[in-house]
Automatic annotation (TrEMBL), chains A, B:
Gene3D superfamilies: 3.40.1280.10. Homodimer. This is tRNA (pseudouridine(54)-N(1))-methyltransferase. Belongs to the methyltransferase superfamily. TrmY family. It catalyses: pseudouridine(54) in tRNA + S-adenosyl-L-methionine = N(1)-methylpseudouridine(54) in tRNA + S-adenosyl-L-homocysteine + H(+). The gene is trmY. Transmembrane segments: none annotated. The lineage of its organism: Archaea, Methanobacteriati, Methanobacteriota, Stenosarchaea group, Halobacteria.
């Protein structure tokens, strides 16, 4: 399975935001929505063996599970609506137990650290870093989790946790990419088994 | 320079559409907006040496020029607003002369064929095709133009024109990608000089 954790630092943790202002009032939730798009969509198909964990302001995590998801569309607005519905169920997320809000979408009362710890148990943690190894030189892991940040850098604490937890540190190219574009490149790297199988 | 032509088959050619329904009433203009995002955005920078040509229903072409553009944001909605403003200037586009609507955005009264012909004069035309050569085996061209379609396949006529004009036919991997994801992978291929330089 391929997994992606994306930390959204400024996004809301309550459902009272407008779908008409994702790039403004909703704390750049548009960035996270594009990450969901990149993670799941193929031309006329969904990547079923994928999970995306959106960390919302280090307080909640909304998980999209490709094997269960039903109502995912590629546009930002409809994905943001799924996040908003998940936040309407935030009080159902008790302890670290998930609450399912729509098919394949669930919310947990977990910040970055708990989510990273939980996911890392059964995955190879891949940190994207400008000083990392060229990804082309790294054998694609069987069950990778790529950890990304929104339009901000990781906080110092997140960076520290990630450095402690990461099994691999790679760079995807000479340019620094947006998180959603990094997900697309990571998929292509995995799809082609390290740019060898086309 | 890197260029991308994207054919949007169902998108409006008049500015009377709502920014709140890009995936529905606006004929999947969201797809084209995501292509603009993939083509231009780096983390904290714009790719200046890029042009994107959005073909609107084979009737108009809206061109985004990275060296001139000023008000581009990554979200779909604000890019769609730039397309809508371009369409408000459609009557200023006389013959094949462009009309600039906002800095770096212009509209031409040109469909797919005329746009492909115009751009191909100074570019290596790259067709993305599932039976193409693995992109990793192809030397990156100096001035490529990648030609893509929205959520629909190319029309028979478009496919024919493209087959006639294409200098290279490549595939980006074993999976069929959305146009915006294909642009991201194409950039990564060019950034890394064919997955060799990181």
């Amino acid at each position: 399975m391929r997994q992606f954790i994306v930390s959204g630092h400024d996004v809301p943790t309550t459902p009272d935001f407008s779908l008409d202002d994702l790039a403004g009032g909703a704390g750049r939730l548009d960035v996270l929505c594009r990450c969901v798009n990149s993670a799941f969509f193929l031309s006329h198909a969904i990547r079923e063996d994928v999970k995306v964990h959106l960390v919302l302001a280090d307080e909640f995590t909304v998980t999209f599970d490709g094997s269960e998801i039903r109502r995912l569309n590629p546009d930002e607005r409809s994905t943001a609506a799924l996040v908003r519905t998940a936040l309407e169920h935030r009080e159902d997320a008790i302890g670290h137990m998930p609450a399912e809000s729509t098919p394949g979408v669930s919310i947990r009362r977990m910040g970055f650290e708990a989510t990273l710890e939980r996911v890392a148990e059964n995955a190879t943690v891949v940190e994207l870093h400008e000083d990392g190894d060229p990804v082309v030189d790294v054998e694609p892991p069987q069950n990778p989790v790529f950890v990304l940040s929104d339009h901000h850098d990781f906080t110092d604490r997140e960076a520290e946790l990630l450095a402690e937890t990461a099994d691999r540190r790679v760079r995807l190219g000479p340019e620094l990419l947006h998180a959603d574009h990094a997900i697309t490149v990571a998929h292509n790297y995995l799809d082609t088994q390290g740019f060898t199988t086309y």
